[in-house]
Amino acid sequence: METLFKYGKAVYKTVDNFNELSYEIGNFGNNVLWICDTNTARMVRPLPQPNVIINTGEGSKNFTTLERILQVAIDADLNKNSTFIGLGGGVVCDITALAASIFRRGCKCLLIPTTIMAMGDACLGGKTGINFRGVKNAIGNTYEANEVLLCPEMLRSLPDREYYSGLSEIIKHALLSNSRELYQKVVLDRQKINARDLDTVSDLIRLSLETKKEVLEQNRSEILKLGHVFGTVLETMTDFNKSHGECIVWGIIRSTELGYKCGLCEKSFADNICRVFKPFKYDVDYKIPRTNWQLFKSILAKNNTYNSSNHELLILTDLGTVVSYAAEEDAIQDAVIESVVYR
């Protein structure tokens, strides 16, 4: 086991394999509540009591699930010194940390992220949340775990769609980093990344977390929302049928194209951003149908980030450089809507 770093009260550690992970988990004793989804619950046999098993997917991030977790904790006579252990992806980690933050005014929390998005991005920073009335993460707070255990070996069995969805956030960090190490690894080791080479993926996760940690420590957390305004609009438009990562990639590419059209960056740079993402099975050319423009506008108008920043969008203008820009409606339409084809 290796300690990567400490951020706030949270200690981030990596373990080599699941056996080592199981040994480490055993040190927390019996005063714990396990929270898993239907997939990750099968990783621990038998799953200790008490436990809560939730359905996979965004549909479980709601008050009903949160209430069930808290009810099980109360029925089991857990207390402020108990530990909530979240074993799963972003949904499990988000709701576990939220439940821990409000149970007995805050109990201990251990997160074991099992997806590449959770390992390389979501586990750092303490964001918690549930969805409410169709708004993603509308209810939540910031509550850092006491410990985060990373086991990249788990990623071998991750479905392709989840793997590439999570990889998107790591590539985003590569574009935001002031260092070129992560960016060069993404570009030069794409074959190993697609093959899920364990050493390569472990390096990606470490460098991604180090990049995010640096951004947070520099109080530049707003740039981590790169691609999220357009991306979350697309996510909502498709009723979450497109993965979060697919939508964020789309948001980054479309906002960079917008930057080029508004004279904020060179066309060659915008084209290069497409080339960075293309080897990883993302649809870099997709644009939404023209008939959906009014729907796009209405969802965009409700976007909290977009409205709270006076209709400004984050635009990547160079590696490590992001600017806020209030684009005209026509320019946005040109960047996100498919072109008219005359026959």
Describe this structure in words.
By secondary structure, the protein is an alpha/beta fold. It folds into two domains: 2-154, Rossmann fold (3-Layer(aba) Sandwich); 164-336, Up-down Bundle (Dehydroquinate synthase-like, alpha domain), CATH 1.20.1090. It contains 14 helices and eleven strands. Strands 1-2-9-6-5-3-4 form a seven-stranded mixed β-sheet. A two-stranded antiparallel ribbon has the order 7-8. Strands 10-11 form a two-stranded antiparallel ribbon. A hairpin with a 2-residue loop joins strand 10 and strand 11. The protein is globular and about 60 Å long. The relative contact order is 0.10. The model has no long low-confidence stretch (mean pLDDT 93).
Share in helix = 40-55%
What's the main sheet like? 7 strands, mixed
Shape: globular
Number of helices: 14
Report the CATH topology name of the largest domain: Dehydroquinate synthase-like, alpha domain
Range of strand content: 15-25%
Please identify the top-level CATH class of the largest domain.
Mainly Alpha
Strand order of the largest sheet: 1-2-9-6-5-3-4
Distance between the termini: 62 Å
Would you report the number of β strands?
11
Sketch the topology as an H/E string, one letter per element: EEHEEHEHEHEEEHHHHHHHHHEEH
CATH superfamily of the largest domain: Dehydroquinate synthase-like - alpha domain
Task: Look at the structure and give the mean pLDDT.
Answer: 93
Radius of gyration (Å): 20 Å
CATH architecture of the largest domain: Up-down Bundle
**Which structural class is indicated by helix and strand composition?**
alpha/beta
State the low-pLDDT regions, or none.
none
Number of domains: 2
